[in-house]
């Protein structure tokens, strides 16, 4: 029987609650400690969970019985904890995105490879049953030659979502806004199904929120397979609409909305046999509304990889793909040029 995998967490914001709940729900996992600069939060953690807390990450990483560091800091503050964890010989799980630009991601990937530790990034929406079915339908050729992919993430966030936080919507802390933090899950799904993008033409703007990053962005992409794609992402569309991923081919079309297949028309119909999802996978109006099940599924997968010395599905090389796409989107908007990848 494998020993329990022990976890430490750096950062104690809202997403850390998801990580704590996942670890507590999995028999093969144990929460060992949490690092937070905030003394009040450390006292709260100690009282609520009865575990060790640390002000400095290096002190927590010195624990000999610590196996994994979960990075729950803001987007642009993932690199330094990852480098420290790799140096200490700890595996790394980071919330999406991996980091805010390809250069910082590449440093994380290199450090973990050199230290022979696993690096994985949370993209729990890859485990939605409806998405997995969509992916199988495309992979099995039921749509025929792929023609077009549409991603639409027209969500809404109250102005207070940004105003009451010192990093959301900032270029240093968030790396942008609506695309890199909200739309990223569905861009990751798009790349996972359609394959690599070869060119991007995009425009991003800030039209509603008082932030540095974009609250609306659109892009036209061309895939290596010759298909075209469109991207819409926003946190300014009142009152928030369900996200969609649409795939169209010569022999059929399939539409995923809020994690569920809502339309599938095939020239040669098949039985979909869809598995129901517990709770919601959408955060179109409430960033805390997402169910925990998918996080647990990915955590279980990563734990199995650690125990059996395997690479996780979403390792560093997978997680950087969407960052390269986002980097091209931002560069295209900034320069007014088509960016070739």
Q: Could you describe the 3D structure shown?
A:
- By secondary structure, the protein is of the alpha/beta class.
- The chain has two domains: 5-122 and 294-314, 3-Layer(aba) Sandwich (Rossmann fold), CATH 3.40.50.720; 126-289, Dihydrodipicolinate Reductase, domain 2 (2-Layer Sandwich).
- It is 35% helix and 24% strand.
- The protein has ten helices and 14 strands.
- It has helices at residues 14-25, 39-49, 57-61, 79-87, 102-115, 129-139, 159-163, 178-194, 293-307, 316-335, and strands at 5-10, 29-35, 52-54, 68-71, 91-95, 119-122, 146-154, 197-205, 216-223, 228-234, 244-249, 252-257, 260-266, 339-340.
- It has an eight-stranded mixed beta sheet. It has a six-stranded parallel beta sheet with strand order 3-2-1-4-5-6, with helices on both faces.
- Helix 4 runs parallel beside helix 5, helix 5 packs antiparallel against helix 10 and helix 8 (178-194) packs across helix 10.
- It is globular, with a radius of gyration of 20 Å.
- The termini are far apart.
- The relative contact order is 0.15.
Q: What's the order of the H and E elements? A: EHEHEHEHEHEHEHHEEEEEEHHE
Order of strands across the main sheet: 13-12-11-7-10-9-8-14
Radius of gyration (CA) equals 20 Å
Number of domains: 2
What is the annotated CATH architecture of the largest domain?
A: 2-Layer Sandwich
Low-confidence stretches: none
CATH C-level label of the largest domain: Alpha Beta
Would you count the extended β strands for me?
A: 14
Mean pLDDT: 95
Question: How is the CATH topology of the largest domain named?
Answer: Dihydrodipicolinate Reductase, domain 2
How is the main sheet built?
8 strands, mixed
The proportion of residues in beta strands is: 15-25%
Shape: globular
Distance between the termini: 46 Å
Contiguous helical run count? 10
SS content category: alpha/beta
CATH-assigned homologous superfamily of the largest domain: Dihydrodipicolinate Reductase, domain 2
- Helix proportion: 25-40%
GO molecular function, one term: nucleotide binding
Protein name: Myo-inositol 2-dehydrogenase
Enzyme class: oxidoreductase
Keywords: Oxidoreductase
């Amino acid at each position: 029987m494998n020993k329990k995998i022990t976890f430490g967490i750096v950062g104690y914001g809202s997403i850390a609650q998801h990580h704590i709940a996942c670890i507590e729900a999995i028999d093969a996992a144990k929460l060992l400690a949490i690092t937070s600069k905030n003394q009040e939060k450390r006292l709260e953690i100690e009282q609520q969970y009865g575990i060790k807390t640390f002000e400095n990450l290096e002190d927590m990483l010195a624990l000999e019985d610590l196996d994994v560091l979960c990075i729950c800091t803001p987007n642009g503050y993932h690199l330094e904890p990852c480098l420290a964890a790799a140096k200490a010989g700890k595996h790394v799980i980071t919330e999406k995105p991996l980091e805010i630009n390809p250069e910082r991601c590449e440093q994380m990937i290199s450090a973990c490879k050199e230290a022979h530790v696993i690096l994985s990034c949370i993209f729990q929406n890859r485990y939605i049953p409806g998405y997995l079915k969509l992916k199988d339908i495309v992979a099995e050729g039921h749509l025929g030659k792929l023609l077009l992919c549409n991603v639409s993430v027209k969500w809404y966030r109250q102005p207070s979502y940004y105003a009451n936080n010192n990093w959301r919507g900032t270029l240093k802390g968030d790396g942008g806004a609506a695309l890199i933090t909200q739309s990223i899950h569905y861009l990751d799904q798009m790349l996972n199904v359609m394959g690599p993008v070869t060119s991007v033409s995009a425009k991003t703007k800030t039209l509603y929120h008082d932030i540095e990053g974009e609250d609306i962005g659109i892009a036209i992409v061309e895939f290596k397979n010759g298909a075209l794609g469109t991207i819409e992402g926003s946190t300014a569309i009142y009152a928030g609409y369900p996200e969609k991923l649409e795939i169209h081919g010569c022999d059929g079309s399939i539409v995923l909305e809020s994690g569920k297949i809502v339309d599938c028309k095939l020239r040669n119909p098949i039985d979909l046999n869809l598995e129901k999802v517990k709770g919601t996978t959408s955060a179109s109006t409430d960033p805390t509304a997402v169910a925990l099940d998918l996080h647990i599924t990915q955590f279980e997968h990563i734990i199995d990889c650690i125990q059996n010395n395997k690479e996780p599905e979403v390792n560093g090389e997978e997680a950087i793909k969407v960052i390269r796409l986002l980097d091209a989107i931002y560069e295209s908007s900034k320069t007014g040029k088509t960016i070739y990848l």
